[in-house]
Amino acid sequence: MGATGISKELSASKDVTSTQASDIDNISITSQVTLKSAHRKVDKRLLGWYAFVYLIMRIHVSNISNSAIINLEQGTGIKKQLGNLSSSQWAMALSIFYYPYMVFEPFATLALKHFSPSVWMSRIMLTWGIISMCQGATQNYAGILACRLFLGAAEAGFYPGVLYHLSFWYPTEKLPLRIGFFYACGMFSGTISGLLAYAVSFMNGTGGLAGWRWLFILEGIPAILCAVYTWFYLPNYPETVKFLSEPEREAVLGDLPKAAPTMAAETFSVQQALDLFKDPTFVPFLMIWIFHGVGGWGISFVLPTVIYELGISNTAISQIMTMPPFTLVFVILLSLAFLIHTRRLSPWVAGLGVELMQIVCYILLITVKNPVAKYVFVMIATAASQSFFAIIWPERIRAAKGTTTAGLAIGLTNASCQLMGIVGPLIYQSKFGPTYRVSYICSIGLLAGCIAAVLTSWFFVNKGDSKGLEETVEEAEAETAEAKAS
């Protein structure tokens, strides 16, 4: 073959290679477009609905705090009508919700996989709506305790169940902004709850019922209606939904890592459960949720009372003044989630920054005397505390490998956090008001412990990432060697 022929052959070969590379690029672009289209559909049908329901669910959780000061001036407050409840009795009424919530949460999270998300989530919504309305009929201390106990059992598994369900659909690197949005919508409920409590306070005496009774009754109805919609329309798994085309379904499934939970996997694997307990990140993550839950969230359970005892407003206006802190949560959390999602900020750095911000606010609340300044610091501390968990959750989920491991890790971690509802109201009892100096000192110590736990978890997660990267490189080298040998 002459030089000209060789030159033509090489040129043709280059053209073929170039064409193949171009085809691969086109396939990659097409696949990414398909995946984005699929995720947009899933965001609307799954994430959007969960965010709306979580907003309603958080109203249920926070309405007991709002009810504490409704119509106090008229002499029809909940504490008086239930038998002149003491500070410790009211703290128990707040905290008893979290005992069954904590116990049942790990099992309730795995139950989502066993019964299917649409069935299990609709059950949760239906029972919490009915029991929430029953709170409006209570006549004494024992009655409110019983309702709160059953309400905790009914709601157990919703929040961790949502995170678990999302892990069947999205890889963990695409969860920060989505979990941030979901969580921010739930926290925004504090704004709506305060506004509803303010409006419902003017229904005092309507139909012979006190305002706090109407609050529980009216806020229970939406959950029941949501249960009906969820039963029929909540998407279960990528493999079963009809609103995705086949290419979109394949794109969603292909985007998931090998260790992600799957519909076909067994609900409970003993080996995966043992692997979870042996994982060095297991205990540090639990400590994060316990320390921050009690130290950071404690004030949120009695926020209307804390604001009222500043002495700058009456009970009705105090309800309105609970709105800015929760609106600020929405802004801070979405901003941090966006920065983390776009890889401009590390979730660990963001989490540490939020914790330090709370500590500074609590120190200032101890030292500053001006009521208006104290309200500003209460607002910032509340907003910072409720922005934290959503930032760290994707890292907790990422550290769990497998269907059982993910379900148990999410359920147990969130269950440990329920100590916030058991211990938090005790730390922030009204007997420590109006200064709450003891309460703030306790929060500072607990948040310092949380910072230590965050640093420990960060170290072990990075160590696990390095080990996983080494194993991936070794597997790739082994495959290359086999290919050359064959």
TrEMBL record:
It is found in: Membrane. The chain crosses the membrane at residues 47-70, 149-169, 181-202, 214-234, 286-308, 320-342, 348-368, 375-394, 406-428, 440-461. Residues 46-465 form the Major facilitator superfamily (MFS) profile domain. GO terms for cellular component: membrane. It is a multi-pass membrane protein. GO terms for molecular function: transmembrane transporter activity. PROSITE patterns: MFS. SUPFAM superfamilies: MFS general substrate transporter (SSF103473). Keywords: Membrane, Transmembrane, Transmembrane helix, Transport. Pfam families: MFS_1. This is MFS general substrate transporter. The lineage of its organism: Eukaryota, Fungi, Dikarya, Ascomycota, Pezizomycotina.
